[in-house]
Amino acid sequence: MRRMVVLGGGTPLGRRVVDALRRESWVDRVAGIESHHAGRPGDEDLEVIAWTRDHRPLAEYLLKEEIDTVVDCSLVEDRSGRTRRPSGANVISAMYVGAAIADERSPVRSWVVASSSAIYPIGSHAPLLQREDRADARGGDERSASIAEAEDYARSLAERMPDVNVALLRLQELAGGEVRGPLARLLARVVVPRIVGFDPTIQLLHEQDAVSALTWAAEVELAGVFNVASSGVVRMSEAIRVTGHHGLPVLPMPGSPFEGLFDRLGLPFVPPSMNGLLLYGQALDTDKIARAGWHPAFDQLGCLAPLR
Question: Could you read off the pLDDT of 275-296 as tens digits, one per residue?
Answer without folding.
Answer: 999 999 999 999 999 999 999 9
